[in-house]
Amino acid sequence: MAYRQKEYNYNDKLTKDQNLLMDKLYKMRMSGMAEAFENQLMNPNSGLESFETRFSEIINHEWSGRENKKFNRLLKQATLKYPAADLDSSLYDPERQLNTHVIELLAKGDWIDEPNNLLITGGAGAGKTHVACALCVTALHQMRTVKYIRANYLLQESAHAHSEDNYYEYSNKMAG
After folding, report:
1. What element of type H or E holds 171?
2. Where are the alpha helices (DSSP H) in 43-96?
3. Using CA of residue 10, residue 11, residue 14, residue 15, what is the dihedral sign?
4. Reduced to 3 states, what is the DSSP secondary structure of residue 165?
């Protein structure tokens, strides 16, 4: 997949040297830093802050931009049915009869590092898919790679990979 580099648009309100710096930041793929730097240059009050404070803001802007891009990429790769699912208070409703202690342990994500798989069982309409997606989203916020796949599709894909003599590659792909 080719990375499409953002282009810098010359800003008439900045000096030539400032525009050259901005262009270099974009060419180094640091568009977040460039945007934060430009905001500081355009803000007349930013000069009142210390160098460390201003530099920290620039770095934090780049960092959070990269973290957001990574999270969105991982979210897309996870193929969740409910990408907005979260471990909200509805999971603790006594009518759901869920073992909240187990859910809290799973939310920590230690089981992912071991490595273990998670199989959720229950009756129709019990919320298995929602719980699975919520645990996946929690793991994604920890910047872990996850994959949501229904058991029947996993078995079908596994059988297909086995029949095509590429089961080893398929199992490595699923292992992350």
Report:
1. helix 167-175
2. 51-78
3. positive
4. coil
Q: What is the pLDDT along the chain (176 residues), one digit of tens a residue?
A: 455 667 777 888 888 999 899 889 999 999 999 999 999 999 989 889 999 999 999 999 999 999 999 999 999 999 999 999 888 867 777 777 778 888 888 899 888 888 777 788 888 888 888 888 999 999 999 999 888 888 888 888 888 888 888 777 877 777 66
* C-alpha–C-alpha distance, residues 121 and 132, integer Å: 10
Which pTM was predicted? 0.72
Helix (H), strand (E) at residue 109: none
Q: Which residue has the tokens 């273990």?
A: 116
Taking 3-state DSSP, the helix, strand and coil percentages for the chain, each rounded to the nearest 5, stand at 65, 0, 35
The structure tokens 């355009």 sit at 42
